[in-house]
Amino acid sequence: MPELDLVAKLPGASCLTSLVPYKNLRSFPPGHSEPAWCVAWNPTRPLLASCSTDKTVRLYSYHFPANTSTEANDIMSRRSVKPVFRFLAEIPTAHKRTIRSIAWSPTGRTLATASFDSTVGVWEEVTDAAEGIDGAEHTDDEDGDVNMGNEGPTEWECVTTLEGHESECKSVGYSSDGALLASCSRDKSVWVWEVQPDSDFECISVMMEHTQDVKALAWHPKEEILASASYDASILLFADDPDADWGPFQKLQPSLPAQSAKVAEDLIDHPSRPVRATDVEDADRTDDTKSDNDEFVIPPLKEPETIWSLAFSPCGMFLASGGDNGGIRIWARGGHSTEARWTEVAHYQAHDPRACFSLSWTESAESEAHDLGRLASTGADGRILVWKVTKTDETILTSHLSSPVPKVEMTVLAVQVQAHSIHDINSIAWCRRLVPEDADEGSASYKRAQLAQQRTRGLLATAADDGSVKVWLSEV
Question: Which domain of life is it from (predicted)?
Answer without folding.
Answer: Eukaryota
